Amino acid sequence: MEKIVSAADANRKFSELLRGVRRGQTYIVTSHGEPVARIVPAEPDIEKRKRAWAVLRAALEARPAAKGTKARVKWTRDELYEDAK
Predict the structure, then answer these.
(1) pLDDT at 47 (0 to 100)
(2) Side-chain half-sphere of 70: how many Cα atoms within 13 Å?
(3) Spatial distance between the Cα atoms of 55 and 53, rounded to a whole number of angstroms
């Protein structure tokens, strides 16, 4: 169900509206009683997520398996923050 909110209220309560959007709420913003915008949850970027998983899988497969509970695999800062392309 969409909730109607005036532009003035949307401006004053923007953080609150975003929390609602994170929970799946949709808002229609009005100006002088006329609908002018809709605030809806963003669609997830499925392709970007698939690329990120592929990069992670490739990185994990390229590393030897650690043996024993005390064995640790060291990751560099660049490897941890490498963007999926």
Answers:
(1) 86
(2) 0
(3) 5
Q: What is the pLDDT of residues 37-61, one digit of tens each?
A: 999 998 878 888 888 889 888 888 8
For residues 17 and 39, the answer to whether their CB atoms sit within 8 Å is yes
Helix-strand-coil percent breakdown of the chain, rounded to 5? 40, 20, 40
pLDDT for position 36: 97
* Cα separation values, 69 from 42, 54, 56, 58, Å: 41, 26, 22, 23
- What homologous superfamily does CATH list for 2-39? YefM-like domain (3.40.1620.10)
Within the chain, all domains assigned CATH 3.40.1620.10 are found at 2-39
Dihedral (Cα; 55, 59, 65, 69), 10-degree rounding: -80
How far is Cα 25 from Cα 59, in angstroms, rounded to an integer? 38
Structure tokens belonging to residue 72: 């640790």
